[in-house]
Request: fold
Amino acid sequence: MQLKGIHHVSAITANAKSNYDFYTKVMGMRLVKKTVNQDAPSMYHLFYADEEGRPGTDLTFFEIHRAGHTYPGTRSISTTSLRVKSDEALKYWKKRFEEHSVEQDEIRERHGRNTLFFRDPEGQRLILISDESNSGVEAGKAWEHSTVPEEYGITGLGPVHLTVNDTAKTEKVLTELLGFRKKGTYEQWVVYETGEGGTGAEVHVEEEPDGQPEKPGRGSVHHVAFRVNDEDELKKWQEIIQAAGYPNSGLVDRYYFKSLYFREANHILFELATDGPGFATDEDVDHLGESLALPPFLEHKRKEIEESLTPLDTSRS
Reply:
């Protein structure tokens, strides 16, 4: 078995409305699911992705109203990457970020690819990465109704960056337990890949031996999920992870996919998630994200849940 790449990344926002405005209007991503945190249904869980919400394209946010400032440190998913088709797209985004007063750096090469580092309004650390010279896991498709021209749109998730105190511990989990391959190094980063490789299947690890653990808050990343084919394969992964001595959640039914959670040796939360059944399970593809979607096991609490949430209009004319 091989993990197929990045499935999704989940982060924290303190304001769902502002988050929605930035990621749909400025970033041009599609809201493919407006639902709730199944473990705490009084908070929104928003999923932004490509045109259909394909696995490997989902950037998700839990809304925690009182989330404070993030103090960066180790034991963290320190940066999330978003894929675009070309180097030309990065030039478009450079200008777009200037127009929208988005904090950004200069375009520069990282590990043989051109990239653009930026931050969202809550300080979320993000990198746009060009797929111009990329080969490997196929990207998704930018949404044709986006605020961004299709040729420049976000097509999926790129490498996740981990900051840890001891790279050797995380490397052992990635390579010996999860089957990643060590691909190379650049600057202070070590690169690992899985499956078909490429930008959609990489983890970049940075070591800070004396660093203090990150204090998470708004704009921090909660966990990263990796792709598995189906539930049968997920069960086999559970056996492998359990045999290696890592406490885990057991299989969890998230309705849109099934999951397994565990913490790797530097305490970063990893999830393995199935590719299906997907976000069109309970909504028409043309109307994804327009209304509050609840899994069947929460539907009987809809009235109570809706009353606990701040109204968020995501309808599209």
